[in-house]
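Sample intake — Cd(2+)-exporting ATPase
Collected from: Paenibacillus farraposensis
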Amino acid sequence: MDALKKTERHEWILDGLDCANCALKIENGVSKIEGVLDCSVNFVTKTLTMTASSDEKEEIFRQTEQKVHKLEPHVRMIVKNTRGRSRENSRNEADITQVCATEDCACGHTYSHEAHGEEAHAHSGHDHGEHVHGDRDHHSSSQAHAHSHGDDSHAGHTHDHGAEGTRRMIVRLAAGAVIGAAAWWLPVEGVGKLVLFLLAYIIVGGDVVLQAARSLVRGMAFDEYFLMTLATVGAFAIGEYPEGVAVMFFYQIGELFQGIAVNRSRKSISDLMNIRPDYANLKTGDSVRRVSPEDVRIGELIVIKPGEKIPLDGKVVDGKSHVDTSALTGESVPRTVEPGSSVLSGFVNTSGLLTVEVSKEFGESTVSKILELVQNASSKKAPTEKFITKFSRYYTPVVVIVALLLAVVPPLVAPGAQFADWVYRALIFLVISCPCALVVSIPLGFFGGIGAASRSGILIKGGNYLEALNDVKYAVFDKTGTLTKGVFRVTGIYPADGFTKASLLETAALSELHSTHPIAASLRESYGKELQPERVQQYSEISGHGIQAQIDGRLVLAGNAKLMEREHVAYSAAQQAGNLDEGTVVHVAVDSVYAGCILISDEVKEDAAKTIASLKKLGVVKTIMLTGDNRTVAEAVGRQLGLDEVRSELLPQHKAEAIEQLSASKKTGDKVLFVGDGINDTPVLALADVGVAMGGLGSDAAIEAADIVIMNDEPSRLVTAIHIAKRTRRIVWQNIIFALGVKVIFLTLGAFGIATMWEAVFSDVGVTLLAVLNVMRVLKARSYE
């Protein structure tokens, strides 16, 4: 336990975080704090996620709060809600001292615990140990994203325009435009014209100038506010009053539309995962009252009316209905539930009234874990995101230095060069340098891809895993429960002379009456009639062979070929009947006379063969099946599905060794994907580059072990996931090439004096807006059949 407590993971909502560059500055700043092992700030979800040493957590939190306040004073840190966590963690939290617990912190900043939904909480969001799955109660994306409302908490500029903020901005821009037009057209000269243009400029861009001044005081020059202020004030300084006002006006117009586009994209993402129930109808005695899902305990009864979301996992005790599972599984066909049926939070009751006995508290429920996975996915950045983070860290300072040289060197060395002309070019150069389009659209793209996959019933735990799907060259599968249904059924009955199919099946079912083995269960299920225990006088299991029983006074043997050989029963001729290499064969003998055999098969899933074929079309060079089943059955399944390689009769450690060998022999950059049921294959899921748990709906082990969880039993969802990954990467790289290409063109034009401030604003704000609109295509529904 001590080892687990050395590092802890913490999450905050950054309320008022208003630009991607601000997020980048906070991430870089907090990452440098001693004791912080990893830090990620996601502009899309407005979440700061940090892994830090537990030994100095109070000091780390204090420094984090100070750093955020220094970089962005208007941003408030709101601790993510910790309700619904395990009892052990709740006890541990009692020992944690809240940093900045008072309203006014040492640094003079309010450490907000105001409720946004239920995000703020009296305790820090500490997770003891490195694993956080299932420990926190997460809300729907629409609640988990703390938006700044209009001009909420600061007078500075914001990208995040609420409805009220949008109206105010439109009024300001309209007023500034009218005054600017009057200054342009009225016959006013000299100081009067300057005053009118200055008034228009202040109305339109006063908030930008104020924010730039604050940045400069904090020593944080060269953010977009400072660059835009410098460029427009520079235009006034060289007498270009109309251009100074117009550039600020169009910059603000671009920012307005950019904010609307980003918020619309956020809403589209949150709508994909809008599965969090708002309430539960708790039944106590004869009354039903509406309560928060977090307040319902295990064993209590809840009532779900037609049209309502099922708020907690449980079992139906009364009522019959159809439930829509599409929010979790992507399945459009409703599922029938009745007393005894298990239901999961996130399902929607479509018809009858249901009474459900709760089996899990909300913090451990399926919907809570799914929301946690999707929201936490933003903290695991894809390599492309990391590249852009590093790129922008060096790109902007380099461009600023070049701009400074551009303003100073030519007037000194070139004959006839005008200082004002080259300063103007340098100002244009600075405006163009802002890498907003990249740092906004790329995280938005990966988060959108993860959201789109969630809507299809595929949970991807991070952008890194989404991007890794593009490079999968080796797909390795478990057999039972992954490529096959994992349900044994009688698929062939072959009686010997003197016996009928009915008598053979009845004898086999009676012999297996007391066995708990899945094969025994399949024989009893196939027989389908009530079995009379009194007919079985004696019963014994012969380990590794089968069953010996006394039925109606006759000695019955039921088992494998080794049992027949041990008891010297001739069976070879009868064994040739039927295609017995496609499943498990149960031989039956009565009083040492061979009665026949029964074939029991684990059926292959309907879409398994199509999945293997589709993977090969997508660039997978080798498909492999690893199974503990016998060689004959495994090879038959392999032939049926068109697999490249089959390895059978493996123990779990042998599967792990096979993955290690494959990883060692593959080319650098190629990825090995393993698909298993997530329960018995935990070590193998961890060893593969991408571990996929199949049929993870409600399976804690699957959700914990895998990098990707397919919520239903369809292997074809793996193909959908790879299509989404390829589509996401294609759109992200479109944005990277487009944004950098436009910037290179306009930086060149600006340096040669061809581009004006108008083009500079387009290359910054316009390109960002187009990139955000492009990335919203990730969210559109697509069929990958």
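Post-analysis note: The chain is about 45% helix and 20% strand.
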